[in-house]
Write a structure and sequence with these properties.
Blueprint: H1 4-12, H2 23-40, E1 44-47, E2 52-53, H3 59-82, E3 86-88, E4 93-95, H4 100-125, E5 131-134
Parallel strand pairs: 1-5
Antiparallel strand pairs: 1-2, 3-4
Helix pairs in contact: 1-3, 2-3, 3-4
Length: 138
């Protein structure tokens, strides 16, 4: 069975971050990626208690969900960069971003493009539109 850790490892291999991301945030991105994949490409069943999928997923599916998670990460980073303070006056302009906004925006656009290409390819193959997250209430 494919586990949440398999997808998270693929996601974490796509970038380098100086500070560790909270596990709860990464897991939230995973659930969003599963729902998006299920809605746009093909049906997936994931048990949030055991953190396992109902079947073994091929690497393409794992990498596609990791790409979605990377997009959520980049959207968060872009939001952070946009919130940094810039001071602009008649004689002085101080921008603490040093091109970070443009760089972050370009990376976000590239990630969205790659995710869209993955969706288009998978839809070409064919898919079912359905999403199921399973909660064990034991």
């Amino acid at each position: 069975m494919t586990t949440a850790d398999d997808v998270i490892q693929s996601f974490e291999s796509t970038f380098a971050d100086k500070t560790p991301l909270p596990d709860s945030l990464v897991f939230q991105w995973l659930k969003k990626a599963i729902a998006r994949y299920s809605m746009e490409i093909d049906d997936l069943t994931f048990d949030v208690e055991t953190k396992e999928f109902s079947e073994d997923l091929d690497q393409y599916v794992i990498d596609t969900m990791a790409e979605y998670m990377h997009q959520y990460y980049q959207e968060r980073y872009y939001s952070l960069v946009n919130k940094r303070v810039s001071i602009v006056t008649k004689e002085l302009s101080i921008d603490g971003n040093n091109g970070s906004k443009t760089s972050a925006k370009n990376e976000l656009d590239a990630i969205k493009y790659n995710a869209k290409q993955s969706e288009t390819y998978r839809l070409y193959i064919g898919g079912v539109i359905n999403a199921r997250l399973v909660f064990n209430n034991t």
